[in-house]
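User: Hey, quick favor. My workstation is busy. Could you predict this chain's structure for me?
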Amino acid sequence: MIEDSAGRTLVRAAMKAPYLERDEEHLLAVRWKEERDQHALHQITVAHMRLVISMASKFRHYGLPLGDLIQEGHVGLLEAAARFEPAREVRFSTYATWWIRAS
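Assistant: No problem, here it is.
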């Protein structure tokens, strides 16, 4: 799947990260949006790296290294976090999917 040890470490860390419940995700998103709490952003992004890896693996047959695809997907994940509006009551993963693909 991933060629280098750094990539494997990233995948292992992503798979160990806990899923977020809807309420916890909403609370973290509000903390990030209103207070710019970096810890809340970190928790959101780590919990959704599994999604980035899953989506990136679907594009690996286009000739790009999987590590590069994951990095670009992470950029999309951060963009989604910056633009996410918790008041809309949509799950972050649903919103982030578009931004991950777009990056």
